[in-house]
Amino acid sequence: MAAHNPTFAAHPEAPPSRALNVSLWIAQGLLAVAFGMAGVMKSTAPIGDLVTKLPWTSAVPLALVRFIGTAELLGAVGLILPAVTRIRPGLTALAAAGLVTVMALALPFHAMRGELAQAAPINLLLGGLAAFVAWGRFKKAPIRGRA
């Protein structure tokens, strides 16, 4: 019978590393700024202004552009507010997962429009950061709610 080696035993109550927690907060902040700015722009800017900055907005209904902007804005808020207030902090991981979905759906859309070379790097970067936050806040470093 093999001896138990506590060095490799995972302790379910072990706190996450400080570096991971800091990395997750930095990623959450960067994503909140990026999606917050994009969300405000897509949900409030006149369509004429949007078309000059984001040509793809001319190819979809205005209601869809506004919906995407609102989803991005709510995702940005969801990355920060539940975690900071510690009120329903599990929503932070769900917000990150939702933003991964937005970026995953953007890739084939931009590919169909021949914009993949321009759009893929930012979609992959933001989607990857959001996936990191979702993984970290779901599995490795969830934020505890108020007691």
Brief synopsis:
This protein is mainly α and 147 residues long. 72% of the residues lie in helices and 0% in strands.
- Discrete helix count: 5
- Give the radius of gyration: 19 Å
Q: What count of domains describes the coordinates? A: 1
- Quaternary state, please? single chain
Helix content: over 70%
Number of strands: 0
Ordered list of secondary-structure elements with their pairings:
Blueprint: H1 18-44, H2 47-53, H3 62-85, H4 90-112, H5 116-140
Helix pairs in contact: 1-3, 1-5, 3-4, 4-5
Give me some keywords for this one.
single chain, 147 residues, mainly alpha, 5 helices, 0% strand, elongated
Task: Please tell me about this protein's structure.
The chain has 147 residues and is mainly α. It has one domain. The chain is 72% helix and 0% strand. It has helices spanning 18-44, 47-53, 62-85, 90-112, 116-140. Helix 1 packs across helix 5. The longest helix has 27 residues, at 18-44. The protein is elongated and about 50 Å long. Residues 5-11 have low confidence and may be disordered.
